[in-house]
Amino acid sequence: MWRALVFLALLALAAYGAVWIADHPGTVNVAWGGYDVQMSLAIALTGVLVAAIVVALIWAIVTGVIGLPASISRSTRERRRNKGLASLSRGMIAVGSGDPLAARRHASDAERLLGSQPLTLLLKAQAAQISGDRDAAERAFRSMADEPETRVLGLRGLFVEARRREDEGTARAYAVEAARLAPSVTWANEAVMEAHCADGDWSAATETVERRASLGLMDKHAARRQRAVLLTAAAQSNEAGAPDTATEQALKAVKLAPDLVPAAVIAGRLLARRNDLRKAAKILEAAWKATPHPELGKVYLNLRAGDAARDRVARAETLAKLSSWDPEARLVLAQAAAEAKEFGRARDTLAPLLDDRPTVRVCRMMARIEAAEHGADSGRSREWLARAARAPRDPAWVADGVISERWAPVSPATGRLDAFVWKTPPEILAAPEDEEASGAPEAEAHRIEAASLPAGAPAPAAPLPAAPAPAAPPPAPADATAEAVPGSKPGFLETGAGSSAPATPSTTAPASPAIPRAPVPPGTPVERPRHIA
Question: Which residues does the UniProt record annotate as the domain HemY N-terminal (predicted)?
Answer without folding.
Answer: 26-132
